[in-house]
Amino acid sequence: xxxxxxxxxxxxxxxxxxxxxxxxxxxxxxxxxxxxxxxxxxxxxxxxxxxxxxxxxxxxxxxxxxxxxxxxxxxxxxxxxxxxxxxxxxxxxxxxxxxxxxxxxxxxxxxxxxxxxxxxxxxxxxxxxxxxxxxxxxxxxxxxxxxxxxxxxxxxxxxxxxxxxxxxxxxxxxxxxxxxxxxxxxxxxxxxxxxxxxxxxxxxxxxxxxxxxxxxxxxxxxxxxxxxxxxxxxxxxxxxxxxxxxxxxxxxxxxxxxxxxxxxxxxxxxxxxxxxxxxxx
Length: 281
What we know:
- InterPro entries: Acyl_CoA_acyltransferase (IPR016181), Clp_N_dom_sf (IPR036628), Clp_R_N (IPR004176), GNAT_dom (IPR000182).
- This protein has helices spanning 10-23, 30-40, 43-52, 56-63, 83-98, 106-115, 125-135, 167-177, 180-189, 238-253, 266-273, and strands at residues 7-8, 103-104, 139-144, 158-161, 198-202, 208-214, 223-229, 257-263, 276-277.
- It is 44% helix and 15% strand.
């Protein structure tokens, strides 16, 4: 794989490697992206594989059909790719940017792939729906807290419990960088008779650069989030430290499980929290 200016999740890196293996040195087609995703089998991709009843033989026969000679290079691949694959990867990047995320993941690519309609002749409408509903949307995850051990810290940014004096600055920070809905949730989180279950990350100037909470969203016990870190400070381990701080406190309190509701960066929670996706039925 050539050097790209975009960050990829480890799972997507494996997917693209599988896709190139399927291409066998030929020009990569959209169907190779699908086969690569199904071969990965981990996380939501394993769920899609189990429920989609995909026929690998038919997919590979489809991939072997004659195509036009037009091809182009792409930073994500060593192989040449078709213009359709190039367009799909560009659209995936647009989705990543639209969601204000910094890592390109398999969900972005699958959404761009299916909505491109390039595989409509080989996939059923049910298979398309399974891919979109299971692999391209936020999902609920769960972690067993008694067996949870936090990873080593990769950031030493100051993290502390939010105090009454932090309330308005934090609300303003969330409104500016995230949403009014999250700000309302956090505001309600300060209205408790016990310790405030909200933590904030501060830079050297003591400015808020991130936050996390639990038991706050609709006052649901054992429910984590929302959490946010400003984009300029992501990929520095701050989010990891925030979530670990919350989970360790929940573990000490005696919670058996923590639920991550509607999580977008699924692989982040899988890695940092040993979380597993709650299956859809």
